[in-house]
Amino acid sequence: MPRAMWTGSITFGLVTVPVGLFSATEDHTVHFHQYQRGTTDRIRYQRVNERTGAEVPFSDIVRGHDEGDGQTIIVEPSELDQIAPGRSHSIDVSAFVDLDEIDPIHFQKTYWLAPTKQENEKVYALLAAAMESTNRAAIATFVMRGKQYLCAVRAASGVLSLETLYYADEIRNPHDSLDHLPESADTSGREFDMARTLIDSMSAPWQPEDYQDTYTDRVRQLIEDKRAGNEVVPESAPPEATDVTDLLEALRRSVEARKAS
């Protein structure tokens, strides 16, 4: 069994369920080191004083906040430790909300929650079953590695998962930060009807096992080809943007192609 990255308890009302927190995902990305071109010499990064050029030991490094007016506020690591929230051992539930009401933009990272001892399994299973039957998620806060997280605990197939959430003020308003956002689309024209037809023709049940990281597969193939001395075949160029004058024709041909397949 993997080692828990955090241990504590879910608390709601007068009920306490001891649990461990485990990563629910893993990274399959092909990782590279950096080398100087023409050599196999590794590139290393050093902590260097930009004024003197001298390397600085980690023990002599402090934090600083640039005030923007030429003034820098220096903060010692010990000072950050003093004001940081203490290591929490509790996932404190404040409310149960309908899971469908949480906009997916708030979801950050998923973890599994599991009971830490056999005697805790019955209470854990009861909580999971009750949450799943009501489609409720427990909104809570907890502290891990010196940071407080907002989270949603949800249940599926008898297992509790914890989703760390972005706070509301961490989510950007697209109308304030993005250029070229269009006005509302005309929903009375043929283009709209054809677009809905295309979406309907491409509709399918969500089956995550049908999808795979094809780019990582190509990266692995690139490494194999270079190891074997084979020629590297480039991918085709991305398609051009659809001109608005060709939109209806492009939609019509897309629908016909879906029907034919």
Please state roughly what percent of the residues sit in beta strands, choosing from under 5%, 5-15%, 15-25%, 25-35%, 35-45% or over 45%. 25-35%
Number of continuous helical runs: 6
**Share of helical residues:** 25-40%
What value does the average pLDDT take? 89
pLDDT < 50 stretches: none
Largest sheet: 7 strands, mixed, barrel
**Class by helix and strand content?**
alpha+beta
Could you tell me the number of beta strands?
A: 9
Element order, helices and strands? Answer: EEEEHEEHEEEHHHH
N-to-C CA distance: 45 Å
Q: What's the alpha carbon Rg, rounded to whole Å?
A: 26 Å
| Overall spatial form | extended
Description:
It is built from 6 helices and 9 strands. It has helices at residues 77-83, 121-134, 174-177, 190-201, 214-228, 247-260; strands spanning 6-12, 15-23, 63-66, 72-75, 90-98, 107-115, 136-144, 147-156, 159-165. It has a 7-stranded mixed beta barrel with strand order 1-2-6-9-8-7-5. A hairpin with a 2-residue loop joins β1 (6-12) and β2. The longest helix is centred in the last third of the chain and has 15 residues, at 214-228. The two termini are 45 Å apart.
Features:
9 strands, two-stranded antiparallel sheet, alpha+beta, 7-stranded mixed barrel, 25% helix, extended
